[in-house]
Amino acid sequence: MARYIREVELNRPEDFVQYIMTDFLSRHGFRLVDFQGEQVYRAGGGLVEMPKFLSWGYWNGIFHVEAWTRNCWLPGVYGAENSMTGFMGCVPKSAYKKDIEELIGLLYQPLPVNQGMQPGAGMNAQVQPGAGMAGSPAGPWPYGQQPVLVRGTDTSRYATMAFVFALAGIVMAVIVPVGGVLLGAFGITYGVKGKLSSRKGLSTGGIVIGIIAIVMAVVVWILRFFLFLL
Fold first, then answer.
1. Region 167-175: what's the mean pLDDT?
2. Can you state the percent helix, strand and coil of the chain, rounding each to 5?
3. Pairwise CA distance, residues 125 & 149, whole Å
4. How many CB atoms lie under 10 A from the CB of residue 226?
5. Dihedral angle of Cα 66, 72, 77, 78, to the nearest 10 degrees
6. CA distance 71 to 134
7. CA dist., res. 191 & res. 157, Å (int)
8. Is 157 helix (H, G, I), strand (E, B) or coil?
9. What's the gap between Cα 72 and its chain centre?
10. Fewer Cβ close by (within 10 Å): the C or N end of the chain?
């Protein structure tokens, strides 16, 4: 196996860890699947974004997470597990590794103790207003009674990546149409991931420009094809 593995001692309430993980997985588009006999979370279909996999557990205060990627040769046909280092797929793998490191940071965030709540007690976690979040897709926690505001996952970095890829796609569409399609698709993919971040406008711009880049690339390719026939 070529998995990136982290195991840290948290000693945090289980409902807090569950909430942070639910928020993280939802915002990054992970779905629970049965992959080769193992229950794991998967994101990315392989056509544009490299398929990413994740498994995690929390026992006796110890948080364990494993993250890895695979190549997707055809729909449903995957290669071996990739190392999280190396040149192939270095950009998405580097971003994925950074996501995991930021997740660890969120799990270590200070928890407020108010209204008599004792550390380690059950809590009803909610995303902290003004922290760059657009609200949690998971909703309030059903465990405990005491509401506690916590920082959730922020995918604003992907909004920036979407905009940059989309702009590059506009330029590439005129030079190398295939490259324009690919970069435009990256812009759309990362734009969707950044829609729930604090940079929603930038993310939307990446999606719109990405679509324009793809359309331009297709038009340029068609024009070149007919000019070649002439």
1. 93
2. 45, 25, 35
3. 6
4. 8
5. -30
6. 32
7. 10
8. helix
9. 18
10. C
C-alpha dist (Å) from residue 55 to 46, 66, 68, 160: 19, 5, 9, 27
Q: Looking up tokens 């229950």, which residue turns up?
A: 39
For the chain, where are the alpha helices, taking DSSP H only? Answer: 14-27, 90-107, 156-175, 177-193, 200-229
* Mean pLDDT, residues 53-69: 94
Report pLDDT for 147. 58
Residue with the bigger pLDDT between 117 and 199: it is 199
- Read off the pLDDT of each residue in 172-199 and give the average, rounded to a whole number: 87
Partners of residue 6 on adjacent β-strands: 65
Distance CA 188, CA 205 (A): 9
118 has pLDDT over 50:
no
Matching residue, tokens 């009803």 = 124
Confidence of residue 208 (pLDDT cuts 50, 70, 90): very high
The upper half-sphere exposure of residue 48, i.e. CA atoms within 13 Å in the direction of its Cβ, equals: 18
Token pair, residue 211, equals 């679509």
Mean pLDDT of the region 169-193: 90
Instruction: Supply the Cα-derived Rg of the chain in whole angstroms.
Output: 20
- Using alpha carbons only, give the angle 137, 160, 180 rounded to the nearest 5 degrees: 110
Tell me: pLDDT of 228 over 70.
yes
The burial of 179, by beta-carbon neighbours within 10 Å (0-12 exposed, 13-18 middle, 19 or more buried), is given as: middle
